[in-house]
Design goal:
3 strands; 4 helices
Length: 99
Amino acid sequence: MTKKLTWDPKVANVYRKMLPPGPPSKSELKIYERYIKEVKRKRDPKILILGSTAGTRDLCSKYKLAYTSVDYHEVNFRIMGTVLKYKDTGRLISRIGGK
């Protein structure tokens, strides 16, 4: 049986140009950033991201916070990782092909 990919690698290129509600809007990311700054003050914060959205992953990496991303397929995480602005600080838990 051949494995069928749920995402085409071209999606990352499309994602760069995609407008909300697909990815979070700039104003939504500002709200997330405010909360991430609060979380950063805590000792050893635990951050869970549902999905592999680059914007939320980048915010954690920007503030050097480790996070765990939960996605249904490892490929999604890797593909979205190609559009990150910061060095990734997260790890993945996935149902298919993940750690």
